[in-house]
Amino acid sequence: MLNLTTITKLGWRPFFQQQLSLEEWDTVRIARVMAHHRTGFVLNMEPKIATDQFSLNLAMTALMPEITVGDWVLLDKQYHFLRVLERLSEFNRKAAGSKIQKQMIAANVDTVFVVCSLNDDFNLSRIERYLTLAHEAGADAVVVLSKADCCNSIEDYVQRIRSVDSMIAVEVVNGLDRKSVSVLEPWCSLGKTVAFIGSSGVGKSTLVNTLMGEDTQETGGIREDDAKGRHTTTARAINITPTGALLLDTPGMRELQLAASEQGIAETFSEMTLLAEQCRFADCKHDQEPHCAVIKAVEDGVIEARRLKNYHKLKREQEKNGASLAEIHSQNRNHTKMIRVTQKQMKAFKKR
Ligand SMILES: Nc1nc2c(ncn2[C@@H]2O[C@H](COP(=O)(O)OP(=O)(O)O)[C@@H](O)[C@H]2O)c(=O)[nH]1
Ligand SMILES: [Mg+2]
Ligand SMILES: [Zn+2]
Question: 262 C-alpha vs ligand 3 centroid, how far in Å?
Answer without folding.
Answer: 16
